[in-house]
Task: structure prediction
Amino acid sequence: MVDGTRLWQRLQSLAQHGARADGGVDRPALSPTEAEAKRTIIAWAAEAGMSARTDPLGNLFLRREGLENLPPLLVGSHIDSQPTGGKYDGAYGVLAALEAVPEAPRRPVEVVAWTNEEGSRFAPGMMGSAGFAGARDIAEILACRDADGITVQQALEATFTALPKLPIGPLGGAVHAYLEPHIEQGVVLEQAGMPLGIVTGLQGKRTFAITIAGEAAHAGTAPRATRRDALLAAARAATALDALTADPADITRFTIGRFTVLPNAPSVVPEQVQFSIDLRHPDAATLLRLGDAIAATIAAAAQPCAARTEELSTALPSRFDAAMQDDMAALAQGLGLPALRLLSMAGHDSRFLAHICPSAMVFIPCLGGVTHHPAESITPADALAGARLVAAAMARWSA
Amino acid sequence: MVDGTRLWQRLQSLAQHGARADGGVDRPALSPTEAEAKRTIIAWAAEAGMSARTDPLGNLFLRREGLENLPPLLVGSHIDSQPTGGKYDGAYGVLAALEAVPEAPRRPVEVVAWTNEEGSRFAPGMMGSAGFAGARDIAEILACRDADGITVQQALEATFTALPKLPIGPLGGAVHAYLEPHIEQGVVLEQAGMPLGIVTGLQGKRTFAITIAGEAAHAGTAPRATRRDALLAAARAATALDALTADPADITRFTIGRFTVLPNAPSVVPEQVQFSIDLRHPDAATLLRLGDAIAATIAAAAQPCAARTEELSTALPSRFDAAMQDDMAALAQGLGLPALRLLSMAGHDSRFLAHICPSAMVFIPCLGGVTHHPAESITPADALAGARLVAAAMARWSA
Result:
């Protein structure tokens, strides 16, 4: 039985792990803070008689056994956050799933929290789900480093040490189906006045790492004619990319989120700039065309500096399972909950689960579409509506 | 007696304090590394029978007593470096002065190493000389913080603890005259084939701290029309400032050396960018006109983000003491050393000493004008020529 009050209290309680003074959440993937949050969730699952295990990538599974030994129904999301994140991105999916687990399913049900969905500590994100689905090389994932030089492998070992009683099972395996509840991170549901969204698919995404190589020089003496100023070159490149991705229909999403300068001293002409690019579009052809034009655009704008463009990840647009969407539409109608079909503009772990099993997503509205921000906000009523639809779908697909 | 071999060995030896793997030097102001370097210099001065003391800003004075109790002749420079600095910027001035101290002067002679000339750890630079000359408020200097939030006051206490036997005298006091030997940090002497430069003055400099305030948003969902992207706004501002300061005669020096982004995560639209501006020109009217146009240029380019421009320091162009220049020209001729009069394009502690006493500078060439860079290079012959002129000048002005 879905308890809306308990769900809301758990959302607020989990947000204490990594709470920021401004009301937001800073809970990096594989951090001590995230391990504490996992400990809390494991305790809640234990109260409901569910067992916990992890896997070699630190994904957390909370299992209710089924009457029959079948591949499990997986439902969940992630609990890591952006450095200036909110309380609900990811956490809502895990806690709504935990609230919605059926009592005595025929098929085993597992609530999952995937490792490093956000990609802000270790880039790119969705590491846990990509590794689980066999879409990324495990050795390459383990060797990724954060800004302090700590590898995923080292951070995983720290997490396993912090959670010593958590069994480590094998990576991957057969999955019956995957459902991910999540906040919309946009304004479509809010503007339509609908409490629920049935997600039809994900827009595509390409990410890049750019290095602009200039030459350090003295700010007071080096003549402009002799300078190779990496900061000004990067500024020209950013402005040129902004023009490249200009879109009157406002569908293209282009972001330079990370930007670091060396040596970053006021009276030294910068010798190097590294920056990230996040490019998204729901149409595969447009995503490919724009992404393929990035390297040349930067190289031209960065002159006389040298520029290197490395593609970190490519995810073409995804379509979710049609039968699961139809099931959820019928279930929502039966519950008297209005639901709208819509495309997800954000990426999610469901992108990789869809490679290996029928997958689906449920959205609830978030205030003003504000997300990845301390002001991220949802209502208790929408949180409950989402959990009720998730409970109905879990009951159906595990029966 | 000036010993060119000893001077060269000491330059190489001092460069070991903060040595970088690439041959450069990273010796932040008021760091443990700089304290070790001071310990080395104090030991060399003690070998020559000179006493050491510091002052409340950490300036280091190595004193040879005079036959009469008169205001001292001060000669020196600084030993802090840029993070990617070279072996000679600053260090040459201090070690050449130490090599050139007369044996039994009538007037006391003090070799000085000023605190935080570079301004890369604590901005703006020339803190020690500005405080000594009464040109900056001491409380404001002590409250300055580095990128880790450490104040000058805290860093000073750590330095005093690291050098427990160093007496702390009062700040400031009467000075007979100031001479600063330094590498040119330009190519004028090299191109003229001259070993020595007699500096006529310093170009003016204004520094600014800029804050661009946007709004954090999700890289995948936030439409461009609703974004206030602080990174793209800062890129437009940088490009607009580059255009504002364009100069066919290539005399204007404009640099954005430090640039930091918040939250600096790949899939979050940046909510804030802070950057530095370093603007220099030898003509006061031009310096004032360009500097005064900065705030409006940024505000227009940063739309729809808000921009705040704070001026950190203003130093109008300086002219050095004419009699000291004439003395040095005559002394160089007597030594058979060719010397050229030239303007300094870099700022120096002499800017502030010139407020309180007759001041002068001697330049030696540096290879290709490369400075603030690990490849910074000078020749032993030029190092010796500079020290010989400094010795002659010190002997004359302390006699």
Observations:
- The mean pLDDT of chain B is 96.
- Residues 284-302 of chain B form the longest helix (19 residues).
- The domain at 204-315 of chain B is CATH 3.30.70.360 (Alpha-Beta Plaits).
- Residues 86 and 265 of chain B are 33 Å apart (CA to CA).
